[in-house]
Specification:
Its EC number is 3.1.3.16. It contains 18 helices and 20 strands. The chain is of the alpha/beta class and 607 residues long. Among the domains are: 332 residues, Purple Acid Phosphatase, chain A, domain 2 (4-Layer Sandwich), CATH 3.60.21; 85 residues, no CATH class. Helix 3 runs antiparallel to helix 7 and helix 9 crosses helix 10. The radius of gyration is 27 Å and the shape is globular. The protein starts with 7 loop residues before the first helix and ends with a helix.
């Protein structure tokens, strides 16, 4: 086939499709392999001119009737991949004839022709990413969203973000306007999709303000952030993305996002990771909605004059009074720091991303860690009164941070009223249900989002929601408590010490539970297997959750309680298969090492 006129993005896609085509011929049973080059050359394209808008694409590769024997042609139709989009190119030739088997599912996101993002493109992007999360391995993600798409999308978004002030003023005073405020998402892509479905997509009359923490602790931080960037580019005056403390090098190196990028982009990961970091620096820090509601990630902050004062020794500075900052101070922050400074005028960046409310009056440093401040009800009252505001909505703290505390709400329904004064209220909002995806303890919390409506934006309503179904993946967290300076971390981070370096199931992999007694089964299979311990006894070994589970998701016609039983058994079978395969690989490696040592001893003996 001719490559004339294809740009780098499309050239790479064509080459990738050829690889897939050859792989299918080589791997599928019943396929003659006499002339595999024919199959690769049957990958063709439809003229872009036949389509109104440049949207996402799924590959359809002809099986080639001449290459499939009679047995292969008996495949049932419902085993074939249902592909909703056809791959198209500007200088294409014709339409690809048939779809792949579901086991070879492949989809690709192309950057739109003319660099013009449309609503259809964004909707198809979300569809593609959701399907890819269910049907492709993380290591194949770089083929679903190539780096050229990542770079172009980030560049387009940054050209908008860097023009926004530190505190964006959101004018939404229309009669039927409403604003959705969203808290921490933490890479929980499927919960974000559920939220957008429930609350409704951004529109002319519906604004969105996201309070940060898009990445880390979840498996799909890239997907979350890219989708939100796409919405920002499409509707820059309706979607506002603020920065959280996890949009930093410091946190992403410790809580999974860097490892996620490394897993999904391999050799290209360093450049992709740095591109994301550059984008994080352009994110605004706060918003004022309809002249009455202030939102940010962490909270209030000190005066820039106090932060810039270099006088005094450390002991004296520690005893100095910390004055509350204003929106004028906030406007002077140089936000182009990838990590939060610990001194100087840009300390305010640390404050606004890391600070937490307290029931004790005053503004003071946070003992036990270097980032952020504690501020009391008097500070909330003073800030609201000084700026003629009625409400503060911040995020940063989920159920883990509030676990065991008595001062504030436990965040299990996704939000909490922390201060309630004469001038207004302070809310904490958290939008990641069933949190964290990766961690030693999984909270069965709900996420929530706030709804602000015209004309009374200062009287929010909160909508709680449960988690969406999401595919199983292994965690990207790889933390070693001995190598971490815990004095710099808040309680929500200290709780998470997961590792993926061992074969055994990660401690944070919460296994499914099901009450089999409801079905009359009293000896249900467990996730524990007894293995010889080498000394005549046995040891109990926990079955790990598999990265991919065959048979899931289940058809929608299967109802409870049978649905839960099937899911439990499918996951257990997948875990056992994964355990057997891993142990067999380890045994073979061990035998090979022994044989190698034996050969070396034999060679030395002969010498």
């Amino acid at each position: 086939m001719s490559y004339e006129g294809l740009d780098d993005q499309r050239m790479n896609l064509v080459l990738r499709m050829k690889e897939i085509a050859h792989g299918i011929v080589d791997k599928q049973p019943g396929v003659a392999i006499a002339r595999p080059e024919l199959l690769a050359d049957q990958v063709c394209f439809v003229d872009e001119g036949t389509r109104d808008s440049p949207v996402v694409e799924s590959t359809k590769i002809s099986n080639g009737d001449a290459l499939i024997d009679e047995a292969q042609s008996m495949i049932h139709e419902d085993e074939m991949l249902d592909v909703e989009h056809v791959l198209r190119f500007e200088n294409g030739i014709d339409e690809v004839q048939e779809s792949l088997l579901s086991s070879c599912f492949q989809q690709f996101l192309l950057w739109p022709t003319g660099d013009c993002i449309t609503l259809e493109w964004v909707q198809d992007m979300m569809f593609i990413l959701e399907k890819a999360s269910q049907k492709t391995l993380p290591t194949e993600f770089c083929h679903v969203v190539q780096t050229v798409v990542v770079y172009k999308l980030i560049d387009a978004a940054c050209s908008i973000l860097r023009e926004e002030p530190n505190c964006v003023d959101i004018n939404c005073l229309g009669d039927d306007s409403r604003v959705i405020v969203v808290g921490d998402i933490h890479g929980q892509f499927h919960d974000l999709m559920l939220l957008l479905k429930h609350a409704g997509a951004p529109s002319e009359n519906q604004f969105y303000v996201f309070n940060g923490n898009y990445v880390d602790k979840g498996a799909w931080g890239i997907e979350v952030f890219l989708v939100l960037l796409a919405w920002k580019v499409l509707m820059p005056q309706r979607v506002y993305l603020l920065r959280g403390n996890h949009e930093s090098r410091y946190c992403t190196e410790r809580y999974g996002f860097k490892k996620e990028v490394w897993t999904k982009y391999g050799d290209q990961s360093e450049d992709v990771y740095n591109k994301f970091l550059e984008c994080f620096k352009d994110l605004p820090l706060a918003s004022v909605i309809a002249n009455c509601v202030y939102t940010t990630h962490g909270g209030l902050f000190r005066s820039i004059h106090a932060a810039a004062d270099p006088s005094g020794n450390p002991k004296q500075k520690k005893m100095q009074r910390v004055d509350l900052g204003s929106l004028a101070d906030l406007s002077q922050i140089k936000r182009a720091c990838i990590d939060s400074p610990l001194e100087g005028p840009n300390m305010l960046l640390s404050d606004i991303l890391w600070s937490k409310p307290s029931n004790r009056d005053g503004l003071r440093g946070n003992a036990g860690r270097k980032f952020g401040l504690w501020w009391g009800p008097d500070c909330t009252e003073a800030f609201l009164r000084h700026h003629n505001l009625k409400l503060i909505i911040r995020s940063h703290e989920g159920p883990d941070a509030r676990d065991g505390g008595e001062d504030f709400g436990d965040m299990l329904n996704g939000y909490s009223i922390d201060h309630d004064g004469e001038s207004g209220k302070l809310y904490t909002l958290f939008s990641a249900p069933d949190y964290p995806q990766f961690g030693k303890r999984r909270y069965t919390n709900e996420g929530a989002y706030a709804i602000l409506k015209s004309p009374d934006f200062a009287s929010p309503s909160f909508q709680s929601f449960k988690s969406a179904e999401r595919p199983m993946v292994y965690p990207y967290l790889d933390l070693d408590a001995d190598d971490m300076n815990l004095s710099k971390l808040d309680s929500s981070q200290i709780d998470i010490q997961a590792s993926t370096s061992d074969f055994s199931a990660p401690q944070d992999a919460v296994r499914p539970e099901f009450d089999f007694e409801a079905l009359g089964i009293y000896n249900a299979p467990s996730w524990t297997v007894q293995f010889p311990d080498g000394s005549g006894g046995t040891q109990a070994v926990q079955v790990p959750r598999a990265p991919l589970v065959e048979g899931l998701p289940l058809p929608p016609n299967i109802q409870e309680p049978h649905k839960g039983a099937y899911e439990y058994l499918f996951e257990l079978v997948a875990g056992l298969k994964h355990m057997i395969a891993t142990r067999e690989t380890e045994n073979m490696a061990h035998v090979s090492a022994l044989q190698s040592r034996a050969r070396k001893r034999k060679d030395r003996g002969q010498g």
